[in-house]
Amino acid sequence: MSALASSTGRARIGARTLRTDRWWLPPLMTFLGLMAFVVYGLVRTFMNQWYWVPEHNYLAPFFSPCLSAACVPGSSHFGQPFPDLGWLVPPPIFVLPFVLGFRLTCYYYRKAYYRAFWASPPACAVGEPHSRYTGETRFPLIMQNVHRYFFYAAMLVAAVLTYDTVIAFKGTDGGVGVGLGALLMVVNVVLLWSYTLSCHSCRHLIGGRLNHFSKHPVRYWLWTKITWLNGKHMLLAWCSLASVALVDLYVMLVAAGAITDPRLFN
Questions:
Q1: What are the domain boundaries of the chain?
Q2: How far apart are CA 42 and CA 33, in angstroms?
């Protein structure tokens, strides 16, 4: 035991791993899930149509807020400060970098795509194929440290999507109405807010730099709630990702006339 305790260095094992379970399945599923979203997002962004349903005020999440002069009439709720730059720069290009920046620098997503795309490492107790490891100390991975700033942008985008959801409760006669699309948008913003607020940066913002929680009872109460959400961060990351794609797809199908929006009333 003393020899083991004083030993330095790592055990030398010839095999890549001694695991006998299907350790490769989780990273494979993560790879397929993220790739499906990336492909859908790229196609949807450069499709640049079928994102606004004027009779119900439905705006697809990928195009919100729509800030370009290329936006269809009625879809720009906050003006059009950017010019129409053609098909190479569709309206989502002005907002998506901030949304993607928040997700790409998210602590959970780092783990997910490091394992699934870079095999660094592919799973616990599995050797990685890379000969060197520099961590997040060099470009481009050093940019992961700006996650807290992307968090502020994500809060703003979530607020905009909340506004989109409120105005989606529009009846066919101009009054108040409830359709399936509006309900889906409610679920989407709830999941987006839950994912955003469960972020580690938000948890630090609420309870960080406090030496005595007893002197800050309100912040401590908020910190306990954020901590509870933070424990579900991985689940909320996937659920919110799926809900954004689902609502965007739904609005696209309604705008294209492929389906009609079922109305609960009016």
A1: 24-126+135-265
A2: 15
pLDDT digits (tens, 9 = 90+) for 188-229: 999 999 999 999 999 999 988 888 888 899 999 999 999 999
Q: Residue by residue, what is the 3-state secondary structure of the chain?
A: CHHHHCCCCCCCCCCCCCCCCCCCHHHHHHHHHHHHHHHHHHHHHHHCCCCEECCCCEECHHHCCCCECCCCCCCCCCCCCECCCCCCCCHHHHCHHHHHHHHHCCHHHHHHHHHHHHCCCCCCCCCCCCCCCCCCCCCCHHHHHHHHHHHHHHHHHHHHHHHHHHHCCECCCCCECEEHHHHHHHHHHHHHHHHHHCCHHHHHHHHCCCCCHHHCHHHHHHHHHHHHHHCCHHHHHHHHHHHHHHHHHHHHHHHCCCCCCCEEEC
Sequence-distant contacts of 256-260: CB under 8 A, at least 24 apart: 256/49, 256/50
Reported pTM? 0.89
Q: Amino acid letter at 240?
A: S
- pLDDT tens track for 238-247: 999 999 999 9
Q: Torsion angle of alpha carbons 159, 161, 162, 165, nearest 10°?
A: 170
Give me the residues of the chain with pLDDT under 50, please.
1-2, 4-7
